[in-house]
Specification:
Elements lengths: L10 H5 L10 H7 L8 E4 L3 E5 L4 E3 L1 E4 L6 E7 L24 E3 L9 E3 L9 E8 L5 E3 L4 E6 L2 E3 L3 E3 L4 E6 L10 E5 L2 E2 L5 E2 L2 E4 L8 E7 L9 E16 L11 E10 L4 E6 L7 E2 L2 E4 L3 E9 L2 E4 L3 E3 L7 H29 L4 H6 L5 H9 L1 H4 L1
Parallel strand pairs: 2-10, 12-19
Antiparallel strand pairs: 1-4, 3-7, 5-8, 6-7, 8-9, 8-10, 11-13, 13-17, 14-15, 14-18, 16-17, 18-19, 19-20, 20-23, 21-22, 21-24, 24-25, 24-26
The structure holds 2-acetamido-2-deoxy-beta-D-glucopyranose (6 copies).
The site of one 2-acetamido-2-deoxy-beta-D-glucopyranose has 6 residues, from strand 12.
Length: about 375
């Protein structure tokens, strides 16, 4: 706004102070000053600007002043109130926080456009254009100024979606972006080429497992990218299968362990085991010990549903099987042969002429047996 001053010296300069100087004799002022206050002014094409972090902001601005003045200084400031009466407003181009990023695009006649680049959240405040002339009272600050709000982008998305459902992801900014920009979406840092978005929303219809991933969004032509948001796709168990743990060599008397595996999200933790042609489950848990032969299948469950596997045939050997019979037969046969061999060796040694050999073997006296049973001539 215009400045207060002690007494009217220059008519034109007084006009700009009218609104702030109610104590002055208003009628008197209007009578002697024909110049309209519209001759002093600053206008901005946007009074509210919403800009994306790290982007460049252009504050378009024009200003007017009556003829008979010479512009001395044009600059932008961040306050409409001076700290002290005789102090000038702070010039942002002399502020180290702005000097490197501020570029005056206007002129010293009427254009006061400025560009501020690499905006940060700290830049979110009011901006005012200020100009001074060769006349002490001929100064102006363009109030109300330009309000700048710097925003970042955030993806809004549910944490998880069930396969086949639809989901809408939103690229959120804290204010409505002034520049009508095109949104770009990324999944796992790769731009999504399929254009499935409207405004700042990405619609995923009939979600597939491939749609799971880290999503982020950006604005076309801007460097800022939102943080990632993870979208998980849940689904009922798929590819449910049964495998036999360990080797296929089943040792007699052992049980067979079957393992149920599936692809599911959230992971299936509930498994049921069935024997074909039996309605009730024969077991539960991811692994199952089969003690009898048959055809078995498993069913994997999670919060989104269940699926069953194909059946596998399991043959468990019995104790009474031919293997056992064969083994026992072989063992008995071997024992019999051994006994026969031992008996033959003993007999041979007893018939030997060598008395020492005979003594090592516990032979029965041959005379008796021969007299009693084998030599008929002696018995008579
Ligand atoms: C200000 O500049 C204008 C234009 O150059 C000139 O006509 C006027 O006399 C100057 N006023 C003062 C007070 O120096
Ligand atoms: C002011 O200057 C800027 C930058 O040179 C230009 O883009 C803009 O059109 C000008 N505005 C007017 C009203 O002349
Ligand atoms: C900010 O923008 C510049 C280019 O304008 C780019 O080089 C830089 O990486 C950006 N910084 C961030 C944090 O995005
Ligand atoms: C599979 O067998 C191995 C040994 O052969 C055992 O350590 C493992 O615990 C078994 N896994 C299941 C799920 O039973
Ligand atoms: C496993 O799933 C079956 C079938 O849906 C259900 O009856 C049972 O209660 C579940 N068990 C657990 C521990 O969730
Ligand atoms: C699928 O499971 C997830 C995780 O438990 C759950 O949030 C979701 O509601 C389930 N969807 C359906 C359709 O049951």
């Amino acid at each position: 706004m215009g400045e207060r001053f002690r007494l009217p010296k220059l008519g034109v300069a007084m006009v700009m102070s009218v609104r702030k100087a109610p104590a002055l004799p208003l009628i008197f002022l209007l009578m002697i000053h024909r110049v309209s206050s519209a001759d002093w002014g600053v206008s901005y094409s946007h009074s509210n600007i919403c800009a994306l972090k790290n982007s460049s902001v252009i504050m378009s601005c024009t200003y007017t002043y009556p003829t008979g003045y010479q512009i001395m200084k044009v600059f932008w400031t961040n306050t409409k109130e001076k700290k002290a009466k005789y102090e000038e407003f702070p010039d942002l181009s002399e502020d180290p926080a702005y000097s490197q990023r501020l570029q005056y695009l206007g002129d010293e006649q009427q254009n006061c456009t400025i560009r501020l680049s690499h905006v940060t959240h700290k830049d979110s405040h009011m901006y005012y254009f200020r100009f001074t002339t060769n006349v002490t009272e001929g100064k102006w600050v363009g109030n109300p100024g330009v309000s700048l709000t710097v925003t970042d982008l955030q993806v809004e998305s549910p944490e998880r979606v069930t396969e086949g459902d639809s989901v809408r992801l939103t690229c959120k900014s804290s204010c409505t972006l002034t520049d009508r920009a095109t949104f770009i979406w990324y999944r796992n840092s790769q731009p999504l080429t399929e254009r499935r978005d409207t405004n700042n929303q990405l619609l995923l219809q009939s979600v597939r497992t491939e749609d799971a991933g880290r999503y982020s969004c950006a604005l076309h032509g801007h460097t800022f990218i939102s943080p990632d948001v993870h979208l998980s796709v849940t689904y009922a168990p798929k590819s449910v299968s049964v495998s036999i743990n360990g080797s296929a060599e089943i040792v007699e008397g052992d049980s067979v362990t079957l393992i149920c595996s599936s692809d599911s999200n959230p992971p299936a933790l509930n498994f049921s085991w069935f024997k074909e042609n039996q309605s009730s489950a024969v077991g539960s848990g991811q692994s199952f010990s089969v003690l009898q032969s048959g055809r078995f299948y498993c069913e994997a469950h999670n919060q989104n549903g269940s699926q069953r596997s194909d059946a596998v045939t399991v043959t468990v050997p019995h104790r009474s099987s031919w293997r056992v019979v064969f083994g026992v037969t072989v063992a008995c046969g071997a024992l019999v042969i051994l006994i026969i061999i031992l008996f033959v060796i003993k007999k041979q040694r007893c018939q030997s002429e060598d008395l020492r050999v005979k003594q090592t073997v516990n032979c029965r006296p041959p005379e008796d047996s021969y007299t009693t049973h084998e030599d008929p001539s002696l018995s008579v």
